[in-house]
Amino acid sequence: MIEFVKGTLVDINTQYVVIDHNGLGYQVFCPNPYSYSSYLEQDVMVYTFHYVREDLIRLYGFQTKDERALFEKLLNVSGIGPKGALAILASGQPEHVVHAIEEEDESYLVKFPGVGKKTARQIILDLKGKLGDFAPNLFKPEVIAISQKTTENKQLEEAMEALSALGYVEKELKKVRPHLKEENLTTDAYIKKALQLMLKG
């Protein structure tokens, strides 16, 4: 298994980042690639999960070991694949996911793309009582400073594309877009705000 990839962040896509390690470019799929925006052209270290299937080999990347461990636990749930697990982690609030599992809150879990009632029930059955170590330190608090007005369209459109890549449908995106247009945020912040709105609604 590849424990981590360390190198220069050279590209950010709606689904993945590219890290140059000694001239070799690693394509690393992430829950929210734009959370790395401030590190473009800088050295980063991303904890990885090497996913191997008959028809697919991919590297998935995470900012913390705990985030990766939660991804692995979600993958072990019947009905949850890598794309679904990434969509759940992309909310930026995995502690809410853990809380929903512990409280058997199916209505929260079914808000994620590809998670129906049956899958939500399976997540609870498989993971309840097994995630106590995750809640306190899953995500470091992040402060995003906006130093200047940016053109709304570029960041907002990147955010919409990234959410679409996670599996959210146009109908869901149309509901949150008016709320986002009022804000002046980075792509990463637009994604997080949109996910918060969708999970509330």
Automatic annotation (TrEMBL):
Pfam families the UniProt entry points to: HHH_5 (PF14520), RuvA_C (PF07499), RuvA_N (PF01330)
CDD domains: UBA_RuvA_C (cd14332)
Gene Ontology annotations of biological process type: DNA recombination; DNA repair
Domain (Helix-hairpin-helix DNA-binding motif class): residue spans on this chain: 72-91, 107-126
Location of the protein in the cell: Cytoplasm
Main function: The RuvA-RuvB-RuvC complex processes Holliday junction (HJ) DNA during genetic recombination and DNA repair, while the RuvA-RuvB complex plays an important role in the rescue of blocked DNA replication forks via replication fork reversal (RFR). RuvA specifically binds to HJ cruciform DNA, conferring on it an open structure. The RuvB hexamer acts as an ATP-dependent pump, pulling dsDNA into and through the RuvAB complex. HJ branch migration allows RuvC to scan DNA until it finds its consensus sequence, where it cleaves and resolves the cruciform DNA.
Protein name: Holliday junction branch migration complex subunit RuvA
